[in-house]
Design a protein that fits this description.
Distance between the termini: 42 Å
Bound molecules: ligand HQG
Shape: elongated
Order of helices and strands: HEHHEEEEHEHEHEEE
CATH class of the largest domain: Alpha Beta
Helix content: 25-40%
Largest sheet: 4 strands, antiparallel
Number of strands: 10
Number of helices: 6
Number of domains: 2
Oligomer: single chain
Radius of gyration: 18 Å
């Protein structure tokens, strides 16, 4: 039985990190051809049809993927390590944003700020609950409050993805505070 999680994980890998592993190229905005994706899935013994792909896109717990209006193209909404450009809207953030992480990273984060690590951007959320969920993936979460207004005033560029993740290049330590 092919599970939605298997399909989702495989799509994340290809569409965020390794399109070459599926024999695909992404457009500058991160789009891949749906037919090529279905063919590549079949080669991984994950043969599914268009309807099933649509279901995975629609029901994914974090809306990780989106289809183009004509249904011909698919892309990851965020989380890329390959270079994709221009798929997010620059926007003015709320004055405070949140980041969930774990205690063991705090000394490094307090010293050097939040860095994108393996991703292209630091991921932030407008609500504490999301930050808690993100932090929880690694253990007991700690929540950091980001002075987004201050960072914006200092020239920081914020981008909002279509599933409400705030992206920023980095957050220097002076804009960070422990919130819990
Ligand atoms: C930490 C998942 C040491 C940072 C989630 C985090 C989210 C530092 C980890 C999305 C650091 C990177 C993003 C520094 C940051 N020193 N550690 N200077 N700066 N860190 O996974 O925010 O399932 O790249 O706190 O649910 O945890 O992929 O980022 O703990 O939405 O769709 O380094 O990824 O969604 O980890 O998660 P990540 P994240 P998906």
């Amino acid at each position: 039985m092919i599970t939605d999680t298997q399909i989702s994980k495989t799509l994340s890998y290809w569409l965020r990190h390794r399109p070459d592993a599926a024999g695909m190229e992404l457009s500058p905005e991160g789009w891949a051809d749906v037919d090529l994706v279905l063919g590549a899935l079949a080669r991984e013994e994950l043969a599914v049809g268009w309807e099933r792909l649509l279901q995975v896109v629609d029901t994914n717990d974090k809306s990780r993927f989106e289809l183009s209006a004509d249904g011909q193209m698919i892309r990851a909404r965020q989380g890329h390590s390959v270079n994709v450009e221009g798929s997010w809207a620059q926007a003015v953030p709320p004055p405070v944003l949140f980041h969930g992480t774990v205690e063991r990273f705090w000394p490094a984060i307090a010293a050097e700020g939040l860095r994108p690590m393996q991703r292209h951007h630091v991921h932030l959320s407008a609500d504490i609950e999301t930050a808690q969920r993100v932090g929880q993936r690694r253990g007991a979460p700690i929540i950091l409050e980001v002075d987004a207004a201050g960072l914006l005033a200092r020239g920081g560029a914020f981008f909002l993805t279509s599933n409400n993740v705030w992206l920023v290049d980095a957050v220097p330590p002076e804009f960070l505070k422990r919130a819990g």
